[in-house]
Amino acid sequence: MATLSLHGVRKSFNNTAVLHGIDLEVADGELVVIVGASGCGKSTLLRIVAGLETPSDGQVVINGRDVTGLEPADRDIAMVFQNYALYPHMSVFGNMAYGLKIRGLPRAEIDRRVRDAAGILGIEPLLDRKPKQLSGGQRQRVAMGRAIVREPALFLFDEPLSNLDAKLRVQMRAEIRRLQRRLGVTSLFVTHDQVEAMTLGDRLVVMNAGRPAQVAPPMEIFARPADTYVAGFIGSPSMNFIPAALDQGNASARLADGTLVPFPEGHRPGSAGQPITLGVRPEHLLPGEGEGEGAIPLAVELIEPLGSETVVHGRAPGGLAITARLPGTFSGSVLPVRLPGAHLHVFDAETGRRLDP
Amino acid sequence: MDGSLATPAPVRDDALLRATRRRRLASRLLAHAALLLGVAIVAFPIWMTLVGSTHDAGTIGRGDVPLLPGSHAAENYATAWNEGGGRTRTTPASVMLWNSLLMAVLIAVGKITISILSAYAVVFFRFPGRMIAFWAIFITLMLPVEVRIIPTFQVIVDLNLGNSWTGLVVPLIASATATLLFRQFFLTIPDEFVEAAKMDGAGPLRFLRDVVLPLSLTNIAALFVILFIYGWNQYLWPLLIINDRSMETIVVGLSKMIGRGDSQNDWNTIMATAVLALLPPVLVVALMQRWFVRGLTETEK
Amino acid sequence: MQKKVFFRGRLLPLVLLAPQLAVTVVFFFWPAGQAILQSTMREDAFGFSREFVGLENFREVLEDPAWVNAALNSFVFSALVAGLALGLALFLAVQADKSLRGATVYRSLLIWPYAVAPAVAAVLWLFLFQPQVGLIGRGLNAIGIAWDYRLNGGQAMTLIVIAAAWKQLAYNFIFFLAGLQSIPASVLEAAAIDGARPTRRFWTVIFPLLSPTTFFLLVVNLTYAFFETFGIIHALTGGGPAKATETLIYKVYVDGVENLNLGQSSAQSVILMIIVIALTAIQFRAVEKKVHY
């Protein structure tokens, strides 16, 4: 039973602001993923929660207790590090037991907890081994085990999967998710990998330059990105952005060549003729036949066949790069595409904010 | 399948091949010959010392040192061990060996201990004066004991530490080299270990004991070999500091036995003492060669 | 290079540093300061009064023919020891490097003189070169060479050079072998395919790649010959005959301990410190170069 609240957390290094006032509420048992490009401040945020960095301003509250000034050891948290940080001279058992020994738990209790955790993770046969005798996935499990035995209020994960190969990463991702559900421990998970974020999180915090650009469940972020940064960051290949302007009483977008694209969902707020950015995911572009009304003829530059579908990179007549994702296969030098009405994302061209009807 | 279609047999330049083989063989033979000669040069003085320690004083004094060991080994070593040698009755080798051992171990352990502590402070803490402390230690690299020997001796006299183990050992245990080595090694310990320790609730001393020291064991072993030899081989400092015969170290004692190198010396006892003096450090190097080579090449980086 | 993660606390690190700093201050800075101070003072014969004389002691030292003689001896001695010990060690290391398996065996057989104290090395060689007792000393006399290092300065110098180089050989060999073995095989293979024969390969590829090691060893050998060979000289020749083997460090000892001329001895110490500092500075430049290599 634990909650985490961050109130106005700021951090500056040598007068350079890294975090600009973060507010976040994590509910009991929830897994929140902080995702963003490198340098966005996500790791700093996690380390502030852990107590490894001191915030310049703001509060960290765990379970209603203000822990801002406390040592990591006094925060009732556990952390899984990117490189696992397993002590190389201690056995797996020793690594998992170390924190408990320092806390002075009775030997029998330590033994019970380590064996329980090892059982959950399926690493009982490895307890006597040294870290260097383990594979990457096994080390990952031990690092998890070290966190689990502490029975903490809060789990912190600092890009724990980034040192694994692609296949193992997918497997461990599912395992972490299952484990977190089973133990019901409130967790904060940092990653730069959007797929990891989407598949793991109950909610995501998409960070951009020290600010949370959007905090929402994964599908909401995918379906209704709050701004062009989030829209471009989540989804692969990235969303296409097309410059346009509001027209017809804000009921349509006028593209550079004069084509009008109506908004079936209704009027957008804004002044007449205001510049906007249209966002279209590659899979939502409609492949057209011939040169019909509103079709954009893409000059094909690169075709990436993925088996069941094909990604086509091309250029619109104005020189704008557009990516389309088509079912099946494709060949040819020109691909006419049409903008769909239903899956259009409309952003203010100046602020990048989403414009909803 | 058809033999007639097979490619023609490759042309072989037998002369060139033979020449190449000959050259390679010659090069290897030369290498081994040179190395064996080198080993012989290195070993010869020691061999003659061993031989010298097994003959009676008369044989050597006449200048008839044979190339092979004689039959007086037991009595020579017994004399050296129990009484000391030479016309100027010196300290028994047993006492001097013990003194040397004590000095070498104290110096090595002392140097390692204070170097680990100071390197740990400099690497794992941020505190005011850190860089000053670091440079103060670092600069001592430039002042080997031989250079500052007279003023340091005066300090010992002022502190009334002459003829004492403290005066003999303590001035030699400050070590910039060892501190730099440990600093270098500590810097390679990942930050995450410190963070994990903080998570585990381990304080700095606990982290030092449970994580840093176990990880440093190989470095400590390597350094111990080097420093043990350094300590054992000290000469000028003990020569100045120690007047008390009962505290004489074997290296200094041995050179005192020789005097001016007269032919009437008890060469047999002197050679037995020389063997005893070089045996412990040579054994340490031979038995711990792996650590030794590593320690050497790493301390000097 | 620095860590990004630290423990908190101000007192504990100072406590940890205290022993090292105490030894350093009491036995390094204090004596060094004393030496500098004394080098500008002159005491009367009974130690009753002292007066400030500025650089007078330095002038006297530098003009003293005995000091110039010692400086010259140091120079000759160091150059000979370094040249002999480096050249021989490099030759042996190259030979040992030819066969990988043999290399470690030969290393084991060659490295142990490192463990022998300089003064003990002196005794070993003395036993060979003693004119009446030593195998080689007698042999030389037998074939008509008047060998007595106690009378002939050149012979005395030869003997201490042999003993000092013999001891240093092992050290140089270890470093040269390590240096040779760290040259990437691909570089040598490329040179071989380019058609460079072994000798040419050595001078055009291996030796240049080894030059950081060589330079480093050169400085170490000079430092060794200058300062650490006191035991050899003290045990073998006592600086004689007629000061033919008196080096700078030996003269500091003689003037300070035997002649009790503190002002001049201190001035000599200060000059030596300057030499060491110069050597160390050169060494650090070399190490830096090695890092960037």
From TrEMBL, chain A:
<comment type="similarity">
    <text>Belongs to the ABC transporter superfamily.</text>
</comment>
<dbReference type="Pfam" id="PF00005">
    <property type="entry name" value="ABC_tran"/>
</dbReference>
<dbReference type="GO" id="GO:0008643">
    <property type="term" value="P:carbohydrate transport"/>
</dbReference>
<dbReference type="InterPro" id="IPR008995">
    <property type="entry name" value="Mo/tungstate-bd_C_term_dom"/>
</dbReference>
<keyword id="KW-0067">ATP-binding</keyword>
<dbReference type="InterPro" id="IPR027417">
    <property type="entry name" value="P-loop_NTPase"/>
</dbReference>
<dbReference type="InterPro" id="IPR040582">
    <property type="entry name" value="OB_MalK-like"/>
</dbReference>
<protein>
    <submittedName>
        <fullName>sn-glycerol 3-phosphate transport system ATP-binding protein</fullName>
    </submittedName>
</protein>
<keyword id="KW-0762">Sugar transport</keyword>
<keyword id="KW-0472">Membrane</keyword>
<dbReference type="GO" id="GO:0016887">
    <property type="term" value="F:ATP hydrolysis activity"/>
</dbReference>
<dbReference type="GO" id="GO:0001407">
    <property type="term" value="P:glycerophosphodiester transmembrane transport"/>
</dbReference>
<dbReference type="GO" id="GO:0015794">
    <property type="term" value="P:glycerol-3-phosphate transmembrane transport"/>
</dbReference>
<keyword id="KW-0813">Transport</keyword>
<keyword id="KW-0997">Cell inner membrane</keyword>
From TrEMBL, chain B:
<feature type="domain" description="ABC transmembrane type-1">
    <location>
        <begin position="97"/>
        <end position="288"/>
    </location>
</feature>
<comment type="function">
    <text>Part of the ABC transporter complex UgpBAEC involved in sn-glycerol-3-phosphate (G3P) import. Probably responsible for the translocation of the substrate across the membrane.</text>
</comment>
<dbReference type="InterPro" id="IPR000515">
    <property type="entry name" value="MetI-like"/>
</dbReference>
<feature type="transmembrane region" description="Helical">
    <location>
        <begin position="132"/>
        <end position="153"/>
    </location>
</feature>
<keyword id="KW-1003">Cell membrane</keyword>
<feature type="transmembrane region" description="Helical">
    <location>
        <begin position="101"/>
        <end position="125"/>
    </location>
</feature>
<dbReference type="GO" id="GO:0005886">
    <property type="term" value="C:plasma membrane"/>
</dbReference>
<dbReference type="InterPro" id="IPR035906">
    <property type="entry name" value="MetI-like_sf"/>
</dbReference>
<keyword id="KW-0997">Cell inner membrane</keyword>
<keyword id="KW-0812">Transmembrane</keyword>
<keyword id="KW-0813">Transport</keyword>
<feature type="transmembrane region" description="Helical">
    <location>
        <begin position="29"/>
        <end position="48"/>
    </location>
</feature>
<dbReference type="Pfam" id="PF00528">
    <property type="entry name" value="BPD_transp_1"/>
</dbReference>
<keyword id="KW-1133">Transmembrane helix</keyword>
<feature type="transmembrane region" description="Helical">
    <location>
        <begin position="270"/>
        <end position="293"/>
    </location>
</feature>
UniProtKB/TrEMBL annotation, chain C:
<comment type="similarity">
    <text>Belongs to the binding-protein-dependent transport system permease family.</text>
</comment>
<keyword id="KW-1133">Transmembrane helix</keyword>
<dbReference type="GO" id="GO:0055085">
    <property type="term" value="P:transmembrane transport"/>
</dbReference>
<feature type="transmembrane region" description="Helical">
    <location>
        <begin position="205"/>
        <end position="227"/>
    </location>
</feature>
<keyword id="KW-0812">Transmembrane</keyword>
<feature type="domain" description="ABC transmembrane type-1">
    <location>
        <begin position="71"/>
        <end position="283"/>
    </location>
</feature>
<keyword id="KW-0997">Cell inner membrane</keyword>
<protein>
    <recommendedName>
        <fullName>sn-glycerol-3-phosphate transport system permease protein UgpA</fullName>
    </recommendedName>
</protein>
<feature type="transmembrane region" description="Helical">
    <location>
        <begin position="12"/>
        <end position="32"/>
    </location>
</feature>
<feature type="transmembrane region" description="Helical">
    <location>
        <begin position="75"/>
        <end position="94"/>
    </location>
</feature>
<dbReference type="InterPro" id="IPR035906">
    <property type="entry name" value="MetI-like_sf"/>
</dbReference>
<keyword id="KW-0813">Transport</keyword>
<comment type="function">
    <text>Part of the ABC transporter complex UgpBAEC involved in sn-glycerol-3-phosphate (G3P) import. Probably responsible for the translocation of the substrate across the membrane.</text>
</comment>
<dbReference type="GO" id="GO:0005886">
    <property type="term" value="C:plasma membrane"/>
</dbReference>
<comment type="subunit">
    <text>The complex is composed of two ATP-binding proteins (UgpC), two transmembrane proteins (UgpA and UgpE) and a solute-binding protein (UgpB).</text>
</comment>
